[in-house]
Design brief:
Blueprint (H helix, E strand, L loop, with lengths): L1 E6 L16 E2 L2 E2 H11 L4 E7 L3 H7 L6 E6 L5 H7 L9 E6 L7 H13 L4 E7 L9 E5 L2 E6 L13 E10 H8 L15 H8 L4 E6 L12 H21 L3 E2 L5 E3 L4 E2 L4 E2 L3 E4 L3 E2 L4 E2 L4 E3 L1 E3 L4 E2 L4 E2 L3 E3 L4 E9 L2 E2 L4 E9 L1 E3 L4 E2 L4 E3 L9 E3 L4 E2 L4 E3 L2 E3 L4 E2 L4 E2 L8 E2 L15
Parallel strand pairs: 1-4, 1-6, 4-5, 7-11, 12-15, 13-16, 14-17, 15-18, 16-19, 17-20, 18-21, 19-22, 20-23, 21-24, 22-24, 23-25, 24-26, 25-27, 27-30, 28-31, 29-32, 30-33, 31-34, 32-35, 34-36
Antiparallel strand pairs: 2-3, 6-10, 7-10, 8-9
The protein binds uridine-diphosphate-N-acetylglucosamine (UD1) and calcium ion.
Length: 436
C-alpha cells in the first residue's frame, strides 16, 4: 500500500511567504496532518511530492514526522504531473492512494473506508466524491452513472452543457498501480489552465474500458476542506480545534467554552480538569487530574500537577513543571522553573530559571532577576520559605528552607535556612513634616 501526497503547488492564493502546506494548524504543519492520517490508515510507504522551489522547506519541516520519502516536481504543471513526479516507486500490483497535501482534516477512518470499498467493489480506480449540496465552491464536479465514473470537471471548466451535480471531488483517489502508471503518460494539458489534471486519469481508464468507481460519502464536508486561502486556513483551524476539544470532553475534561480554547494536538489533559474561556495550550503540556486553568491563560511546554489552579491571566512558558495543589494566579509568569507541591504565587510575579521548594509562599510583585544582560542564572528557594512582596532575587542566589525574605528586599547573596533576609532602607518618620 502506497500513498502519494501532493504538496508541490505554489499556493499563490495564500499570499504568503511560507509554503502553503507548511502553515501551522494548532502548531502542526498542514501537510503533517495528512501524512499522519495516511500512516494511521496503514500506509507504510508514503511519498510527499514537493516543489523545486520551497521543497527543502517542506522536507525540513517534516523531518520529525519520520518514515516519509520525498519526490520533487520541479515546476508545478498540475496535479497529474505531480503524481508522475512521485510515481517512481509505484509497483504494478500496489494499491496507491493519492492525497492532496492541503487537506489536513482528512481522517484515517475515511481512508480505511475507501480501502474497504475498493476491496468489496474490485476496480482499477476509486474516486471519492463528497455531497456538497448547493455549496460546490471551487470543488471539481464529479459525474457518474449509478456509481460508474463518467468524468470530473473542474469548477472553472464547467459549461452550461454539464448537468447539475451536488457531488464534489474530494481530491482523494485509490488506484491500481499498473493502471495509474499507464494512464499518467496519456494526460494532456488541454484545459483552461493548461495544466496536467490528475482528474483526467480516471477518465482515461474508463475510456479504455476499465472499471472506475465513485465512492460517494456523506461524511461531514469539513473533512475534505482543502486549504487554498488564508480564510480556508482559519476555517480548518476552527474545525481542528473542535475535533481536539471534543476528544478532551469525551475523556472528561470540563470546558466552559470550547470555542475559545485553543489546544494543540500534542497536549495531554487528564480527566477532571476544568478549562475556562480563552485559553491557549501549546506544545508539550501535561495537565493532571483536578487542575483548573483559569480564564485567559497562555501555557507552553508546561506540566501541571493535580489540584493546582492556574490563572486567570497566567503565562507559563517552556520548561515549567508545577507540582500538586499549587496556586499560580493572575499576571504571574513562570519560565523554565520547577515549583514543588503547595507553592503559592497568587499574583503579579515572575519566576524564571528557578527551583522553588514545597510550600513556598511567593508574594505579590516578587521576581527572580535571572538575566544579567549576558547570561541567565538560577534561583533556588528551599521549602517553606516566605518571599515577601516586591522582593528582587538577584540570581544566582539560594534562599534556605524556612527562610523569610522581607518585603521590598533586593537579595544579592545567599540566605541561610530559618534566617530573615532584609535588604532595604530603614523607614524614618519626620513628625509634622507636611505642616511646614
Ligand atoms: C483539486 C482538484 C479538484 C478537487 C480539489 C479538492 C485537480 C485538477 N483538481 O483542485 O477537482 O475538487 O483539488 O480540494 O486535481 N499540486 C502539486 N503540483 C501541482 C499542482 C498542485 O503538487 O502542479 C498539489 C498542491 O500543492 C495541492 C494539491 O496538489 O496540495 C491540490 O492542488 P490545488 O491547486 O490546490 O487543486 P485544487 O484547485 O484545489
Ligand atoms: Ca486545493
Amino acid at each position: 500500500m502506497k500513498a502519494i501526497i501532493l504538496a508541490a503547488g505554489k499556493g499563490k492564493r495564500m499570499q504568503s511567504d511560507l509554503q502553503k502546506v507548511m502553515h501551522p494548524i494548532l502548531g502542526k504543519p498542514i501537510v503533517q496532518y495528512v501524512a499522519e492520517a495516511a500512516k494511521e490508515a496503514g500506509f507504510a510507504d508514503i511519498t510527499v511530492v514537493v516543489g523545486g522551489e520551497g521543497g527543502e522547506e517542506i522536507k525540513k519541516g517534516l523531518s520529525l514526522c519520520g518514515g516519509l520519502s520525498f519526490a520533487v516536481q520541479q515546476t508545478p504543471l498540475g496535479t497529474g504531473d505531480a503524481v508522475k513526479a512521485g510515481a517512481g516507486s509505484i509497483k504494478p500490483d500496489d494499491d496507491v492512494i493519492v492525497l492532496c497535501g492541503d487537506m489536513p482534516l482528512v481522517t484515517a477512518d475515511f481512508l480505511k473506508e475507501m480501502m474497504e470499498y475498493k476491496k468489496s467493489n474490485p476496480c482499477e480506480a476509486v474516486v471519492a466524491a463528497v455531497f456538497r449540496g448547493e455549496e460546490m465552491g471551487d470543488f471539481g464536479r464529479v459525474f457518474d452513472r449509478g456509481g460508474e465514473f463518467v468524468e470530473i470537471v473542474e469548477a472553472r471548466d464547467i459549461t452550461d452543457d454539464h448537468p447539475a451535480t451536488n457531488w464534489g471531488n474530494t481530491g482523494i483517489y485509490l488506484f491500481q498501480g499498473s493502471s495509474l502508471l499507464s494512464s499518467l503518460e496519456k494526460i494532456k494539458n488541454t484545459n483552461s489552465q493548461n495544466e496536467y489534471y490528475l482528474t483526467d486519469v480516471p477518465k482515461i481508464l474508463r475510456e479504455e474500458g476499465k472499471t472506475v468507481r465513485v465512492f460517494h460519502t456523506r461524511a461531514d464536508m469539513s473533512v475534505f476542506t482543502g486549504i487554498n486561502t488564508q480564510s480556508h486556513l482559519a476555517e480548518a483551524v476552527s474545525h481542528m480545534r473542535e475535533r481536539i476539544n471534543e476528544r478532551h470532553m469525551a475523556n472528561g475534561v470540563r470546558m466552559l467554552d470550547p470555542r475559545s480554547a485553543f489546544i494543540e494536538p500534542t497536549v495531554k489533559i487528564a480527566r477532571g480538569v476544568t478549562i475556562y474561556p480563552n485559553v491557549m495550550l501549546e506544545g508539550d503540556c501535561e495537565i493532571a487530574n483536578g487542575a483548573t486553568i483559569g480564564m485567559c491563560c497562555h501555557i507552553v511546554d508546561t506540566k501541571i500537577g493535580s489540584g493546582t489552579t492556574i490563572g486567570p491571566f497566567a503565562h507559563l512558558r517552556q520548561g515549567t513543571v508545577i507540582g500538586e495543589n499549587c496556586r499560580v494566579g493572575n499576571f504571574v509568569e513562570v519560565k523554565n522553573a520547577t515549583l514543588a507541591d503547595d507553592v503559592k504565587a497568587a499574583h503579579l510575579a515572575y519566576i524564571g530559571d528557578a527551583d522553588v521548594g514545597k510550600n513556598v509562599n511567593y508574594s505579590c510583585g516578587a521576581i527572580t532577576a535571572n538575566y544579567d544582560g549576558k547570561n541567565k542564572h538560577r534561583t533556588v528557594i528551599g521549602e517553606n520559605a516566605f518571599i515577601g512582596s516586591n522582593a528582587n532575587l538577584i540570581a544566582p542566589v539560594e534562599i534556605g528552607e524556612n527562610a523569610f525574605i522581607a518585603a521590598g528586599s533586593t537579595i544579592t547573596s545567599d540566605i541561610p535556612p530559618y534566617a530573615l533576609g532584609i535588604a532595604r532602607e530603614r523607614q524614618c518618620i519626620k513628625e509634622n513634616w507636611t505642616k511646614k
